[in-house]
Design brief:
160 residues
Length: 160
């Protein structure tokens, strides 16, 4: 894990050497203190949580606090809500019923989108990121290039 973090910081430093204009977007997570790039709209803020789990954990904690406070003030409301949930779960979903979930996009994908948008100096959509990551054959071409030439010679010398 330590090597992974070290590698992450090496990548950040190399990116900042090439693009020093990105330094204002580099922030430290309020919870875990890791460095991460934020959206330019948040450049002036210092109360940010990283997208590697801290942001979601903070939202869950805040939501639980709000919910507990509300139901302390309105005790009958929770009983009524649980009753509705129980009755809805007891009835089967009609044919053609599809549950949708907009939270399928991983936080890391949103973070990658922010970084690529900063590097390319243009807004990049999540669908562009997904297409870029879904391109097949990139790794295979690198391996095929090692079949001859310097890479193959080094691999053959080291294998014996």
């Amino acid at each position: 894990m330590r090597d992974l973090v070290r590698s992450y910081y090496v990548q950040i430093r190399s990116l900042l050497r090439e693009r020093p204009d990105l330094r204002p977007y580099l922030k430290r997570c309020r919870h875990c203190r890791i460095l991460f790039f934020t959206d330019p709209r948040n450049a002036g803020r210092s109360d940010l949580y990283c997208g590697f789990g801290c942001r979601e954990a903070h939202h869950r904690q805040s939501s639980a606090r709000r919910s507990a406070a509300f139901y302390r003030e309105h005790p009958g409301k929770k009983r009524h809500q649980n009753r509705k949930r129980y009755l809805r779960a007891a009835s089967p979903c009609p044919d053609g019923c599809v549950e949708s979930n907009n939270e399928l996009v991983a936080p890391i994908m949103r973070h990658v989108r922010v970084i690529v948008s900063l590097i390319e100096r243009r807004p990049v959509t999540l669908s562009e990121i997904i297409k870029m990551l879904a391109k097949k054959g990139r790794q295979h071409r690198m391996v095929q290039g090692l079949e001859s030439g310097y890479g193959a010679r080094v691999l053959n010398e080291n294998s014996s």
